[in-house]
């Protein structure tokens, strides 16, 4: 068992959550077509669907909300945000947008198009969708050890640099429009990327003249792991590590709903390409709103400017990663497998190991998520074949490298006892694991189907 790192804050405001009965939850699942995204939030006891936008803001951030400047153009809050962004990331141009996928929608069509390839350590689902919506194809090149939940390795989020170079040569460098480094690597289990790996990828990008983008949703958690695990950075500040990391890329697209500890927001950063930034401003005005608010209220800009700094505090990051390590420790004791070592924003249960009787096309990660809700009112989600979806060319179900049920932990929201309840529920499920059914899809939309699909249990 791992000791819990106590919260470096006290609680000033609370929100009541309610427990439902198992019989009620059974009905609610049926009504939701066995899709956790169709459940009402108020019917969930502990909500681990995502760590995105579900964060608790600080007293300073709430005070910032009241100071928000709602001017359409040139708001004070915009300049606060730009100053924070330039200071932390060291980039010349910072553009707010309303969330991460908005950044992708604004940037990717300017760089990618029909026939182009984008290569990443691993694309998150909306990022993959925006590559495809821009007419291009998305290719993952994560290191092999990421695919084996039991293999212990410090940077399982890394790019396989040998494979990256092979892919560039296979497709032809003129066809590879973009390299994307997702930090931390969400789909591989919130696994970190090392600076060493970033340097290698940057060298390859430079050699072939391909722009390098950081998908920066969990950049601060990634920096904390670097400090813990990469010798060269043991004595560096989190801020210095972030500066170093971002110095290797040409741009970043960021969902600020994660490490910037707000409920809504996103950022685009461009290191120095003024011409690209000019085009980004054009797309932003068309899709998001004027340059100085980018789809956000002035108050959101203000809370984000403050949250960017709070997310870098080392005591907070120690507590934050400590929560994952504590929950993972409880699962170690119960011999429940997960992507290990545990990642930065959640515990990714190895559903394939827990439910070996369910094949990938009956979605073990989804099956475990549904069982967790039934058992204890806990909402989690699939990160596996159900989320991956169908091959865009053939329409056939793809098989993911792993079948995870993700327990994403919102920031500053749940306590040690909540984590205990989560572990207890999984231990109970483990006892009747062979009775948990697989699922089949009865209806699905063409893009990002996991958010909306209808399912039913196999008989
Ligand atoms: N990139 C990564 C790595 C993400 O994890 C997400 C969102 C996005 C981009 C898109 O950002 O939601 O602000 O539009 N991830 C959330 C999740 C939804 O639950 O992991 P967004």
Automatic annotation (TrEMBL):
Record-annotated Aromatic amino acid beta-eliminating lyase/threonine aldolase domain positions: 47-424
Gene Ontology terms for molecular function: tryptophanase activity
PROSITE patterns membership: BETA_ELIM_LYASE
Family annotation (InterPro entries): ArAA_b-elim_lyase/Thr_aldolase, Beta-eliminating_lyase, PyrdxlP-dep_Trfase, PyrdxlP-dep_Trfase_major, PyrdxlP-dep_Trfase_small, TNase, Tryptophanase_CS
Pathway recorded for this protein: Amino-acid degradation; L-tryptophan degradation via pyruvate pathway; indole and pyruvate from L-tryptophan: step 1/1
Cofactor(s) recorded in Swiss-Prot or TrEMBL: pyridoxal 5'-phosphate
EC number: 4.1.99.1
Keyword Lyase: yes
Enzyme type, top EC level: lyase
Reaction catalysis annotation: L-tryptophan + H2O = indole + pyruvate + NH4(+)
UniProt key word Glycoprotein: no
UniProtKB keywords: Lyase, Pyridoxal phosphate, Tryptophan catabolism
Pfam families: Beta_elim_lyase (PF01212)
Assembly behavior: Homotetramer.
Cross-referenced PANTHER family: BETA-ELIMINATING LYASE-LIKE PROTEIN-RELATED, TRYPTOPHANASE
Family label: Belongs to the beta-eliminating lyase family.
Protein name, as recorded: Tryptophanase
